[in-house]
From TrEMBL:
InterPro entries: Noc2. This is Nucleolar complex protein 2 homolog. Keywords: Nucleus. GO terms for biological process: ribosomal large subunit biogenesis. It is found in: Nucleus. It comes from Brassica oleracea var. oleracea. Belongs to the NOC2 family. It holds the Pfam family Noc2.
Length: 766
């Protein structure tokens, strides 16, 4: 009896524990989110089940009292609390649980409404107003509050990332603004933030070098406020990538130039800024190109070798890509870009020499390949605008820094390459290219004071049969040799081409002889050109050319007499150092006959070139010359000027990301349209050639060594007219012409037979 009674009591305890565990489990279930109807039903079902279990347990205790009265009395004496059980308590507990379930469902509905209200208030708090911006600006200017600086930089980040698909970011304190507020934030931050950061970091108001920032990185102010500097520069870079308005871009770059020294502490940002500035320099208008150049130049001066290499490589690539096509207007823009590049080289001459050596060597290897292989593809790599403009670029660099000992050594190999290019294909169609090469050699000789024998190149052109016989192609249109590398076969036979060539040869020969018109050996070096000029005077039948040659010969003879009279009175030998100072005073006064004649010839050439250009408006001419008096930075402008320029730049309703959706829609429409291949007509090709290069897309100008070989790739030029004279190429490339297959010969014979048959049929019909 005792053991059985204990088992029954333990079963009752387990039953009571089960009730408690079930109650806890049901409470957990009640905590899960459900709709109101399901919560009510679940509460009623739980109420019924608990009542039934309580009634069953009470009946079991009654049966125990009746069947085992002794055990019941024993339990009553020793553990009376175990037998105390009332179903009414369970009913009260169940009613309380049901009420709490209903209360929970009601609270859930209240929480949802409160969440909506909180979200609404949060959105209202995230909206940036003009009053908020004004209050921050006032606190910064008057009280120098750091909290206001952080708030304006948060607002600046929101402005720069406005329109980005970032989703619902709970950490973003601000997210909404109008275009007027955007403009106000951009003007204040770009105008004032550089000065604010310099005060916090205890730096001078302007300037600074890399060493200063490197020392600053170990101080407490930098550790406290470097995140503000990085936020300002990083967000500015982000919005700069999205800007399309020229005024905004110019103002932003101009203001960021003052903070460029901070980029030495952030190498990743520095590389990105260089890429963006190179993009604007290579693809923007002349005003944006100037601002971008000043930004890059300031980086190179302040940061040194950290960015000089990337800037030189990137600008060189951008220059090459802009030289695809040339016309009269584009030629001036290319000259402007070249002068910008030359100005950048002056920031670090020693580093510039290394790059000049590498790039000039690359040009020499391309020329050597053409001389060795003698194929049309190799000739085309040399006789293209990219190659010729690169020669002109390095010619300008050598002439600009001829007094510097670092760049002077590359003058000799550069002159050798130019001479080789001029002699590569010696035909009349390439007279414009040869004249360009002679002009480059004259510039190198004048800047370095070195004698370069260019007279033979010029005299060989006068001996060509196309310039000695009467023109058979009529008068023809005016030929602008500056915008051509090669002329067409019909144009070679025109009178206009003959005149342009002869007059250009005379101009370059006068330039060459004028450089040495004060030399003690002028009579000797001018004797052979004089003999060949007399030969051309006798052979030509054109009276206008005879008159030109007669006048030039007389000027050379007059200059020889002028020099011979002066050197008859001296006692030194031509190889002595005293010969260098011969006629030095007369040279400064330009008293020689050839110097005076050169002034007339230059004026005539200028008038002839202007008559060939449709418009006298030259793009970028005024801003194409840099030197010691380079455009100064705007460090001296006061706050009123900055605000005025900023208001002029940020006066539109533009916001970042506002045009991204339109672009995506346009791209989708273009993808949906079927692609049609249309063959371009000759007129369209000419139109493209004249206007090409205006909208060149250059995204990344910092290239690796593997990409350097692709700069002069000619795959993109296959649709154009063949750049190499077929007759000359066939004469030079003899081994390839002999390799003719039998299949080719057979097809030619069959074609010739068919041609004869059709010709005979036409004759019979006639």
């Amino acid at each position: 009896m005792g053991t059985k009674g204990m088992d029954q009591i333990s079963e009752k305890k387990r039953g009571k524990n089960k009730l408690k565990s079930k109650k806890k489990a049901e409470d957990v279930v009640d905590g899960t989110p459900m709709d109101d109807m399901s919560d009510k039903k679940r509460g009623k079902n739980k109420l019924k089940s608990k009542k039934q279990e309580a009634e069953e347990h009470e009946e079991q205790l009654k049966r125990l009292k009746e069947t085992q009265a002794e055990f019941f009395e024993y339990m009553k004496e020793h553990d009376e609390d175990l037998l105390k059980f009332d179903a009414a308590e369970f009913e009260d507990d169940d009613d309380a649980d049901a009420e709490t379930d209903l209360e929970d469902t009601e609270k859930q509905g209240d929480d949802e409404t409160t969440k909506l209200e909180v979200a609404k208030k949060a959105n209202e708090q995230k909206t940036i107003t003009a009053a908020m911006v004004d209050s921050w600006c006032k606190l910064i200017k008057e009280d120098a509050k750091l909290g206001a600086v952080r708030s304006i930089l948060r607002a600046y980040r929101t402005a720069c990332h406005y329109g980005d698909d970032t989703g619902d970011d709970p950490s973003a304190k601000f997210s909404v603004m109008s275009s007027a507020v955007f403009n106000k934030i951009m003007i204040f931050v770009l105008s004032e933030m550089d000065g604010i950061l310099r005060k916090l970091l205890r730096l001078p108001a302007t300037g600074g070098m890399k060493d200063t920032i490197m020392e600053l990185t170990n101080t407490r102010p930098w550790k406290n406020y470097n995140h503000l500097v990085k936020s300002y520069l990083g967000n500015s870079l982000h919005v700069l990538n999205q800007m399309t308005d020229q005024g905004m871009i110019s103002f932003t770059l101009r203001r960021l130039k003052h903070s460029s020294v901070f980029l030495s502490a952030f190498p990743s940002l520095l590389r990105k800024y260089i890429k963006v500035a190179l993009h604007f320099w290579g693809t923007g208008s002349s005003s944006i190109s100037v601002v971008s150049l000043l930004f890059l130049r300031d980086l190179c001066i302040r940061l040194g070798t950290d960015c000089v290499d990337d800037c030189i490589k990137g600008m060189y690539k951008a220059y090459v890509l802009n030289c695809q096509f040339v016309n009269a207007v584009k030629l001036q823009h290319i000259s402007f870009l070249g002068n910008c590049f030359i100005e950048l080289l002056g920031t670090d001459i020693s580093a510039s020499y290394q790059h000049a050596f590498v790039f000039i060597r690359q040009l020499a290897m391309i020329l050597r390949e053409a001389l060795n292989t003698k194929t049309k593809e190799a000739f085309r790599k040399v006789y293209q605008w990219k190659f010729i403009h690169c020669l002109e670029l390095w010619t300008g660099a050598v002439c600009s820094y001829s007094s510097q000992s670092e760049l002077r050594p590359v003058a000799y190999p550069l002159a050798q390459i130019i001479s080789g290019v001029a002699r590569l294909v010696p035909t009349a169609r390439y007279i414009p290219l040869r004249l360009r090469c002679v002009s480059m050699l004259n510039r190198i000789a004048a800047s370095t004071g070195t004698f370069i024998p260019v007279s033979m190149l010029l005299m060989d052109m006068l001996d060509m049969k196309e310039l000695n016989r009467p023109p058979t192609g009529g008068v023809g249109k005016g030929v602008d040799l500056r915008t051509l590398l090669k002329v067409s076969k019909p144009a070679v036979k025109t009178r206009a081409f003959q005149e342009a060539c002869v007059y250009s040869v005379v101009e370059e020969l006068v330039e060459h002889l004028t450089q040495w018109s004060y030399s003690v050996a002028f009579f000797e070096l001018s004797s052979i050109p004089t003999l060949r000029l007399r030969s051309f005077y006798k052979s030509t039948k054109a009276e206008r050319f005879r008159k030109e040659m007669k006048q030039l010969i007389s000027q050379i003879e007059a200059n020889s007499e002028f020099v011979n009279k002066k050197r008859a009175c001296v006692g030194f030998q031509p190889n002595e150092p005293a010969a260098a100072s011969f006629l030095e005073d007369e040279k400064k006064a330009a008293e020689s006959p050839l110097s005076q004649y050169a002034v007339i010839i230059r004026q005539r050439a200028k008038q002839r070139n202007e008559s060939l250009v449709e418009s006298d408006v030259i793009v970028g001419e005024d801003s194409a010359v840099f030197g010691k008096n380079a455009p100064s930075s705007d460090e001296e402008e006061d706050e009123a000027d900055r605000n005025e320029k900023g208001a002029a730049a940020f006066s539109s309703s533009w916001l970042p990301g506002s045009d991204s959706k339109e672009k995506e829609a346009e791209e989708e429409e273009e993808k949906k349209k079927p692609k049609k291949r249309k063959r371009k007509s000759q007129a369209e090709k000419k139109q493209v050639e004249e206007g090409a290069g205006e909208d060149d897309v250059v995204e990344d100008f910092v290239f690796s060594s593997d990409e350097e070989d692709d700069l002069f790739d000619i795959e993109g030029d296959k649709d154009e007219e063949d750049d190499v004279d077929d007759d000359a190429a066939d004469e030079i490339a003899e081994p390839e012409t002999k390799k003719t297959s039998k299949k080719t010969k057979g097809t030619y014979k069959t074609w010739h037979k068919n041609y004869k048959k059709t010709k005979n049929k036409k004759a019979r019909v006639a």
